[in-house]
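The protein record minuted underneath.
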Amino acid sequence: MRKWLIGGSFAVLWITSLWAQDTNTLVVAVQADPGHLNPAISTASPVHAVADSIFNGLVALDAEVSPVPDLAESWQVSADGLQYRFTLTAGATWHDGKPVTAADVKFSFEDVLLKKHARTRASLASVLDRIDIVDDRTAVFKLKRAYPALLEQLDATEAPILPRHVYGDGEIERNAANLKPVGSGAYKFESYSKDSSVVLVRNDTYFKTARPQFARMVFRVIPDATTQVQAFLRGEVDYIGRVPPSEIKRIEDSGTASVVDVKSGPGGSNCIMTLGFNLERPQLAKPEVRQAIAAAIDRKAFATQILFGRGRAADAPIASGISWAHAAGTFPASLYDPARAASLLDTAGLRASGGGERLALDIVQFASFGRYADLLRQQFAAVGITLRPRLLDPAAMAAAVFTRRDFDLTLVSYCNGNDPEIGVRRMYVSSNIGNIPFSNAAAYRNAEVDALFAEAGGSVDRGKRADAYRKIQQIVARDLPYVWLVETDFTAAWRKDLTGFAPWSGQFAERARNK
């Protein structure tokens, strides 16, 4: 028997040794309870960390972010770029034995992804005209205009394919399969214990020649990063997808782990930790209040005290990893000026009370982002702003921010993807405001920004696209619907006696094995 300490609390879970030190079971640490296991209706990383192994996209992305076959064995693109013809892999089946068909592809996009997946909805809803079914194995995407980012947006993270016969009835958010998913992937669902674990088992009828090596994957929910690392060093966890920067050296010094820096992971790539304003709050609708908050934040302190050099202070609304679109210096570190912040608050009529308080705000975020809240609270206090953190699991956080609009500030790791169309657009366009998790949290509206995104997304000329994205960054840096804090790098770690991982992918363990 083995004793596990979950999340640094005093609760103790006793389990059999099957879950640890079993050469046929892979134990993975995840930072939060996923809330559900439907990756088509959320971009939250805890959902994708688990569910991307249950599902497939039409394509997968390799380490260089190039598309390779997944559910689609091949594809053809018309000369004008307006039609993409996908041929599905022969013999691909759902976990219940039914065949994967072109009708499932059409359903997944037209009925789910274009309505509920924040990134896919924002970028493709205005682009995709329709999907034609030629036969059971052939689907043709017909576009209204050229869209050069399409193939990079069709993997299990951005566009998981769902079985229509399982998810097609009723409201997708209330479907029972969200908690007992049926996919086509390398692993099948076995059990889900909220705030504790998700267990997947190998799909022995998987359609790919290279079958999964591990019979089981167990995802342990361990919100506290230090506790994750302690469990890893004790041999109770085999894989950590996002090692906290403060703990990387300890794992490296142990000599027992492979430690790899990666550009992406479950949930996306090129991520910026972003403070979002609820622009529907009267005080935060005032530009001078948002400017004051931005001036109160020392972004370099986040890079040094939280990221320990595994990332950098953000200097533009688009991540530097998308170098051709990144407008360096649009949001410079020199904006940090507590004296100016205090003056702006005075101008807004928020003068300090006898106790020094000018304004009290709540911030809604994942529990695993607690260190960011602590540092923000310290910096805000210096200018008379009281910050009240509300740390929630992903499902509760999404409901508070995107459904009920019950927040002043929110903290979101917005992953920009490998093209601004994939992960940037969803944060700003007015059509992406609403009950869509991790979409336009600020409820920001600017017709010029909407038009520029349409112009950039519809062009095949990268130079013209870059010009439009630079204009967008100048406008949003002026309007400040968000404060872009730090660009975060990912570091994954796994036991040295394991190999074959793809840490850049949500399907990270499809070929993992013992040496």
